[in-house]
Design brief:
There is one protein chain. By secondary structure, the chain is of the alpha+beta class. The chain has one domain: Metallo-beta-lactamase, Chain A. Helices cover 28% and strands 26% of the residues. The protein contains 10 helices and 15 strands. It has a 7-stranded mixed β-sheet. Strands 1-2-3-4-5-8 form a 6-stranded mixed β-sheet. Strands 6-7 form a two-stranded antiparallel sheet. The radius of gyration is 23 Å and the shape is globular.
């Protein structure tokens, strides 16, 4: 009985622990899988809230209803993804995120690259799908190359548009920032002789080639990666809102410079990917943005990749 009373007294004297505080931060934003003999590492640059009910080219109430079915709402927290490809002889980064151009919720490429086990100095080549600010902002840090040993490549059509002072001067006031940001991000590489645009479809390194897909921008480009009989296509901004545009691929966004061409490019690539079973990686699909397509009615069903620990 004395032992019971002593234990009760000790428990009564023990101070209560406070509830555990909320951690509020996720794990570092990288994923990894093998594509044949190539290692693919999706990197998250963060997320940004997009007013998709305003930018999608359909009635806002229809967008709202479609999002609700997917347990989503506007503004929609939207991923900004980049893809690191290690071929064994080259380390290639496809897009670089927003850097400082889009505020504090983006600009995480450098941190996540390092968390994934790589250093920016190891990146050999950078391929831009297009020159919107959320895809090339990560090229620079404090006006200096963030990837000091990398050669940057993009479509010549894209470069001729966004790096043109004449075109920038003719752009509307709310469209000039993309020009300014593109020119600022690429200037250090141009001066160093490390910006090398290409014409049209082009083989860039063994296993990686550029493939046109204009419409979102004048020279928007997708990149086809092939190894060991496996294929992946980094599709850039062919799609922005998965919950809407997979079911209704004809719906475009206000950011598309040529609405008709953008919708046609999406259909052409999605049809091909569904037919041959290619993996797609989307800049604005929910991170890690990787999956497969199958046709379903007039649209597509997106099948995300299975989680893997690469055993």
């Amino acid at each position: 009985m004395k032992h019971i009373l002593l234990a009760a007294a000790m428990l009564a004297a023990t101070p209560a622990f406070a509830a555990a505080p909320l951690a509020k931060t996720p794990a570092p934003g990288y994923f990894r899988l093998m594509l044949g003999d190539f290692e693919i590492t999706p990197l998250s640059d963060g997320t940004v809230d997009l007013p998709v009910d305003k930018i999608l080219q359909q009635k806002a109430d229809k967008t709202t209803a479609t999002l609700a079915k997917a347990h989503l709402k506007a503004p929609l927290e939207t991923s900004d993804n980049a893809y690191l490809v290690n071929t064994g002889s080259k380390l290639i980064l496809i897009d670089t995120g927003a850097g400082v151009f889009f505020g504090p919720t983006l600009g995480k490429i450098q941190a996540n690259l390092k968390a994934a086990g790589y250093a920016p100095e190891q990146v050999d080549e950078i391929y831009l799908t297009h020159m919107h600010s959320d895809h090339l902002g990560g090229l620079v840090a404090q006006s200096k190359p963030a990837f000091p040993n990398a050669v940057v490549r993009a479509s010549k059509t894209e470069a001729d548009h966004w790096l043109s002072k004449e075109k920038m001067d003719k752009a509307p006031a709310d469209g000039k920032d993309n020009f300014k940001n593109a020119q600022a991000a690429l200037e250090p590489y141009v001066k160093a002789g490390k910006f090398k645009p290409f014409d049209g479809d082009a083989a860039l390194v063994p296993g990686v080639r550029a493939q046109g897909g204009h419409g979102h921008t004048p020279g928007h480009t997708t990149y086809v990666i092939e190894s060991g009989g496996k294929k992946m296509v980094a599709i850039g901004d062919l799609i922005h809102v998965a919950a809407v545009q997979f079911d209704e691929p004809a719906v475009t966004v206000g950011f598309d410079s040529d609405q008709k061409a953008a919708a046609a490019a999406r259909k052409k690539l999605f049809d091909a990917a569904a037919k041959d079973g290619a993996l797609i990686g989307g800049a604005h699909l929910p991170f890690p943005g990787l999956g497969y397509l199958r046709t379903e009615g007039k649209g597509y069903r997106f099948v995300p990749v299975n989680y893997t620990q690469m055993r």
